[in-house]
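Re: thiamine diphosphate structure - here you go.
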Amino acid sequence: MRLTVGQAIVRFLAAQRSERDGVEHKLVEGCFGIFGHGNVAGIGQALLEAELATPGALPYHQARNEQGMVHAAAGFARMRNRLSALACTSSIGPGATNMVTGAALATVNRLPVLLLPGDVFATRVASPVLQELEDPRGYDISVNDAFRPVSRFFDRIWRPEQLPAALLGAMRVLTDPAETGAVTLALPQDVQAQAFDWPDELFATRVWHVARPAPEPAAIARAAQVLRAARRPLIVAGGGVIYAEATEALRRFAEATGIPVAETQAGKGSLRYDHPLSVGALGATGSTAANALAREADVVLGVGTRWSDFTTASRTAFAAPGVRFVNVNVAAFDAAKHAGVAVVADARSALDALTAALRGWGAGAGYRERAGKLARRWDDTVERAYHAGNGPLPAQSEVLGAVNEVSAPRDVVVCAAGSMPGDLHKLWRTRDPKGYHVEYGFSCMGYEIAGGLGVKLAAPDREVFVLVGDGSYLMMAQELVTAVQERIKLVVVLVQNHGFASIGRLSESLGSQRFGTAYRYRGESGRLDGDVLPVDLAANAESLGARVLRARTVDELRAALVEARASEHTTVVHVDVDPLAGAPESEAWWDVPVAETAALESTREARAEYARAKQAQRGYL
Ligand SMILES: Cc1ncc(C[n+]2csc(CCOP(=O)(O)OP(=O)(O)O)c2C)c(N)n1
Ligand SMILES: [Mg+2]
């Protein structure tokens, strides 16, 4: 079949399917793209031919910023539990490098996205072309080499003959639960348009099996032995529980053994918030219940977690001498962490095997009671935070409470950076495994609206509440236009506190006096300490085509949320909050180094406190 490389890629992608548990899905559901000279006549021409000849084969979506479109693809893949993905095509140069941040986000979060950046001419006859880097050390280096460290698979297609193997390699990595992340095929602009005679078999429907690797019986036996000896065991549920659709298996395991369940950011939603064995969020942004149990735990069973510093409170959360870890993870890399007993397996198959292996054993009744009591105490704290009655402006926790109470169980809350992810981790009451979508692997400002777009694209039958701070909004609001264009309805809750409240609080606690974290005029002092800026983000959102509702009180906010939820249009609900009203304490630490020597007294005091806190840090060897 004689096609260009661009046409061959589009035809191939449209024929790929994924399968798990006997259920098939389209693997690549569509393609986001922004065109320039690096892809307009290659992949762009191929997408046009596909749209005209075979509508729906690989639908094209326009975006406003290449980073935004990769975020949307990541949100989409996460919502689909990594069984379907989106492709993203960009031009060369800045269009391509704009995708690098998105690629890193996808790889850090282990989410499949397929990136197709344009690249400089393979023939080099016209070099240097517009936007070419020109590295004097070698003519085969281009800006796209920046994708290598942030991609799980990277190839550059210098010749058409290289394409079939690259496409198969790309699909293998996209559908491998242990390996997945950003997959990048860099496509020189001349090669995209080059014709070649392809074997018909390249375009046959291909089904990629998404594996559920079973645990080794010996590994389960080792894990069971450690767990049976435990007196104060704790489960830590990570994102792997949700991606593996292992939430029911987790519930059965927890109920059979009586082990309480704490959750990481990506794992939040693994167990309903009101389940008797749920103790909520763990770590630096955790509940006091989970953190109290973690401090005492003698055996910690991590399931599908990569043990980020937020989860371990920078290796201070687990404080019992001799604490041991059992790590269930589909990636050996993660299963080996903290010198744990490694169970390299799919979360669901491992939890089922552990349930069988631990039959007849359970955590003590007294311990279970204590966990329940701690969890109920935390829930009272949440209730108070939801209805804090802060004045004159509401506390952020009241905004989260209003959104939680107005949303239905299957609705999805989306967030990524600022003070809200931590507050959501602590306070959000999850009622559905896919109802909580906080990107906290990369915690990338600007993910919120773009990621929310991908979530809604993946789950059009759910309402999506995007929570975005003013800082994140200013970094990347433009995909609101895409939402309007595609009639993809979002409810965006825009939380205005005039700057970086999260970093302000962090800065103050580290003795850096909130330096550079508020949005304020340069004042008479010559510093950025003047009045707040006359920025009207509600008007901004309106100008991008969204409906806008301004709420001044919590009651107005509730009414606006109800109206926005019922609306068919993307609606931005704008609310001012008190930047100084924090959420309840986690009673946990986060390691952020403080200057060892300083002229400032505030820094010196913080350094002394830092040195003291650091003593609690453990090796987990
Ligand atoms: C792209 C990016 N740049 C910088 C940061 C560091 N950072 C984390 S939160 C934050 C401030 C976020 O401000 P805003 O969205 O207004 O949320 P708030 O802190 O006020 O709740 C910054 C600068 C980041 N996470 N991502
Ligand atoms: Mg802010």
